[in-house]
Amino acid sequence: MITIDPALFRADLEAKPASLRALADRLATRNPWEFVGPTRRVIFLGMGSSRYAAQVAARRLRAAGMDAAAEYASAEGRPPSDSLVVAISATGKSQETLDAISDLSDFVALTNDPDSPLARRATATVEMHAGAEEGGVACRSFQHTQILLDALVSHLTGSEPAPIRRAAEATENLLTRRPEWLPRCGDLLKGDGVFPIAPVERLSSALQSALMFREGPRVPADGCETGDWSHVDVYLTKTLRYRALFFPGSRYDDQALGWLRERGSTVVAVGGDVPGAAQAIRFRHDDDSRVRLLTETLVAELVAADWWIHGTA
Ligand SMILES: O=P(O)(O)OC[C@H]1O[C@](O)(CO)[C@@H](O)[C@@H]1O
């Protein structure tokens, strides 16, 4: 049984910059994926935030011409036999992920616990090196999963590695400047639910942000892709005190913002200024979308920690 604790969760968040720098040092000297040879197809398996991170990585592999998918570990069926299967689980204990690999003879585990049941059954293990998350919420491990999957994408496609040190600086900048932005952001997001919105290339930011509000303070929240928003979430703006946590960068930003303005919804923008936002939370290096991807969920995580500790009243 995992215990979750809001003060320890906040301490886990405060440890992000040091944890990122230690990971950057490690990856500078060793490629954790060097054992992976050329492959035609990559299948990621996972649940929750592990799958959110995988979705983005699979998309990047497809954009580079590879066959890749991020599958719910709970899905029926098994990956085609000529696939590199990467089962992702921070704890290495999610039942659905263990079930998904139960009859696979060959798979790689990406996990924060090298002694976990998942790692014990794997052909090879890549460690997240996120340290113990004492608060019981996957936060640093989510960030490290993104980075390690980026390292796999670089290994397979030759793409630029993740800007880890810049993400550490951006994270530190948001943490130290909390008094400037956090109280106002917390006030603005109080309504009938928090709805993070992000471009498909950074969809994990919306989904993980929403998860933080559900898992911590147990506030209704759901993440949405910016273009899709006008087809699925716009409807809620009529009936709810809708609070949008907006991650700019989609070519459909204006379309969504137009509706939000018309319906009088409250918008908090992260990492960029957008027209009509009640607040724009900027951070160091936020002109780089890959730094944003690795950093921007911290806004939701810190608000969620604050509400969880102090309540939302
Ligand atoms: O990566 P894991 O350990 O399999 O966890 C999957 C999901 O389960 C949770 O721990 C909650 O049950 C989430 O925080 C996480 O996203």
TrEMBL record:
Reaction equations catalysed: D-fructose 6-phosphate + L-glutamine = D-glucosamine 6-phosphate + L-glutamate
Root EC class: transferase
UniProt keyword list: Hydrolase, Repeat
Domain SIS: 23-163
EC code: 2.6.1.16
Top-level taxon of origin: Bacteria
Molecular function as annotated in GO: hydrolase activity
Pfam families from the UniProt entry: SIS (PF01380)
Record-linked Gene3D superfamilies: Glucose-6-phosphate isomerase like protein, domain 1
Repeat as UniProt keyword: yes
Annotated InterPro entries: GlmS/AgaS_SIS, SIS_dom, SIS_dom_sf
UniProt-recorded name of the protein: Glutamine--fructose-6-phosphate aminotransferase [isomerizing]
Organism in which the protein naturally occurs: Paractinoplanes globisporus
Lineage of source species: Bacteria, Bacillati, Actinomycetota, Actinomycetes, Micromonosporales
